């Protein structure tokens, strides 16, 4: 374990460095997300005012605020650019360089991103949770923060990241068959944005659609951790949701491996 | 035609020490440094000349070319070309120049080559009649016919370079800037491109400024060279002058029978020369004697050699321009220290 | 002028030909913009299943405002998308060189080079919503209101373009300004809904500082109420012209600070 870590730590450091180097782009991303959240915040405030306060489809205004900002932050945390990266490497042929290194290819990508994720937890998630809890304290007058829920959130978000990583990895492999990933990339992001329930809470959707989406892997990528933080699930459901996440993580792991081995064969035949 | 007067260009650069720590440091206290890419460059090119603009990597060649083409604004100093200052009168000025940057292309990457020329025709307002004539001329000189219908991304490097030169020549510019036009090409293609440049220069009196790392480009094409190093002029003059001033080194090559024993010391003592003024290399029976013809005339050298040993075959060669330039680069470094 | 139009058509045609090469890409791009739009509209539907009015506006009126805001946005998106590339990489990689050695205005050249068909997503949704919502939105339809609103649309698009020029030009100094474009452009989210739902500082921000409120809400308001044309129509024209002038100034300054790339 120790030996393995030592081999992958450089990748992690490189990941952190990348984030620092491109910190301004990252900041733009974060602020862009926050602007969206604020627009939605005002919209919902107005909705709750028009509704005479109280609840909206089972959500209070504070619930809504937590949902908006936390799912945005979670979206940043689980964001993985491994697909675009691997796509680029396949296109320019530098993927062969990576194959030559004596490390596991998936893990080298994973660790590079884990460095970034670690940074995001520190500079994004912790201030966000702090801010949200202060807001909640100011509005309700009591401290509502539940450390157990927060731990569930962390566990679930970690699983969500793994799922997102595998989904994006599979997406990157499309580059073996398609010239340009740009359009598909945008499509992927909007589809995931919608299906993961990070834009519209799944609870607001029509019954049939909601149930469907809850079982797809996309809900596991964002909606599940946020709901866990908000304490929307009963005890047995918590275990069920986490279990579902684990199942998806494993299935997608298998799928990405399957595609990868197929692709390597193709790579060998084509000669890079 | 082209006047460059005390051109100077500074860049600001953030420096980062290596590693994770360096990244964090740069995050909180970014260190800015001023880099002087061109310190003080002056030269003048008359109409119709091919000027070789040379210097080691990082000497500031590209920076100067970019100032001359109006892409960069000089920090101080100025250049005037065709009576225009590029930065002040950009739109009018660029009509009269063509530029090729060897490392990047101005062709539309995904489209057939022909399309690029049609767009450029409109941009430079070349009328139909002239366009036809022009394409015929460029076709003849650069042999574009075989690939003019292929998408640019499928062209080989040599084809792309020919296509790029044609693109920069479409509007019959008075001045042509070529930044590394032969970089990465094989010998045959290089020769092809040199022929084309010569023809264009001869038939249209186009003034050409050319940067290159390939000495044969200079030997075959250039009337004159301007050499810069570390942002300063190092040399300005014709190739002949360069040879005369710096190239007194000659090479005497001869073959003897295998039993001959000749040493450097023998020559040096016999002729009363020291160090770099005389160097001998031996390969089997062939000797190469490099000597300074300012210190010892060629005739004397010849007769001395013939008096020492029996010679089968003998010849004297002018110094290699490449070597002269290499020496000049080295001198520049030496002076700087 | 005719020459400019000719060159524009030519460059745009080149871009379309290129798009045809990557057909699949462009289709998926358009579909994803439609999905984003669908999410935005679905939101409004869900809200109005629970409440009759939002800040005093009916369902149709909110849709109208939303739809109207998408038209200038789409117009700008269609025509000047290449400015993003200037901010993100054209300047950083030194590819801006090529615009400077051509005898046409570099800004025009940059803009003419792309014709972003993806923008059809916004335009179709915008116009579709206007058609759907108009009959029941209680509009003040007269020759004047309609004519003035139509005149105002290109000016509203110019607000988008000017902000993009300004922020993209910052790349001439800081190499890559993509994130700033992203941040400023992102504020257009505020234009989708009635400006009255925001708190005062935000209202001031989107009216006077980054004036996206003029690209949708104020114009819609004029059509909805028929009052205050000086503020809404006059405002959009004045604001867009001032912004455009500033952006040209910044752009020009930027070009002389351009450092290219490499040695």
Produce the secondary structure layout.
The complex is a heterotrimer of chains A (272), B (337) and C (263).
Chain A: H1 2-21, H2 23-50, H3 61-78, H4 82-92, H5 95-100, H6 105-140, H7 147-173, H8 182-195, H9 207-215, H10 217-221, H11 223-229, H12 235-270
Chain B: E1 2-15, H1 19-28, E2 31-45, E3 50-54, H2 61-68, E4 76-81, H3 90-94, E5 97-101, H4 113-123, H5 128-142, H6 157-169, E6 175-179, H7 187-204, E7 207-211, H8 215-221, E8 224-229, E9 232-238, H9 239-246, E10 249-256, H10 264-271, E11 278-283, E12 286-292, H11 298-308, E13 311-317, H12 321-336
Chain C: H1 2-21, H2 23-50, H3 59-80, H4 82-90, H5 97-100, H6 106-112, H7 120-133, H8 143-169, H9 171-174, H10 178-186, H11 200-209, H12 217-225, H13 229-257
Helix pairs in contact in C: 2-3, 2-7, 3-7, 3-8, 3-12, 4-8, 4-10, 8-10, 8-12, 8-13, 12-13
List how many beta strands of chain C DSSP finds. 0
Query: SSE order of chain B in H/E notation?
Result: EHEEHEHEHHHEHEHEEHEHEEHEH
Distance between the termini of chain C: 38 Å
Question: How far is it from the N-terminal to the C-terminal residue of chain B, by CA?
Answer: 36 Å
Largest interchain contact: A-C, 38 and 41 residues
- What kind of oligomer do you see? heterotrimer
The rough form of chain C would be described as globular
Number of helices of chain B: 12
Assigned CATH class of the largest domain in chain B: Alpha Beta
- Sketch the topology of chain C as an H/E string, one letter per element: HHHHHHHHHHHHH
Helix share, percent of chain C: over 70%
Q: The CATH topology of the largest domain in chain B is what?
A: Rossmann fold
Share in β-strands of chain C: under 5%
Give an overview of the whole structure:
The complex is a heterotrimer of chains A (272), B (337) and C (263). Chain A has 12 helices and no strands. Chain A has helices at 2-21, 23-50, 61-78, 82-92, 95-100, 105-140, 147-173, 182-195, 207-215, 217-221, 223-229, 235-270. Chain A is globular, with a radius of gyration of 20 Å. The two termini of chain A are 33 Å apart. Helices cover 39% and strands 28% of the residues of chain B. Chain B is globular and about 75 Å long. Residues 333-337 of chain B have low confidence and may be disordered. Chain C has one domain (2-257). Chain C has helices at 2-21, 23-50, 59-80, 82-90, 97-100, 106-112, 120-133, 143-169, 171-174, 178-186, 200-209, 217-225, 229-257. The model of chain C has no long low-confidence stretch (mean pLDDT 89). The chains are: A mainly alpha (272), B alpha/beta (337), C mainly alpha (263). The A-C interface holds A 24-29, 31-32, 35-36, 38-39, 42-43, 45-47, 49-51, 56-57, 178-180, 182-184, 186-187, 189-191, 193-194, 199-200, 204 and C 22, 24-29, 31-33, 35-36, 38-39, 42-43, 46-47, 50-55, 176, 178-183, 186-187, 189-190, 192-193, 197-199, 202.
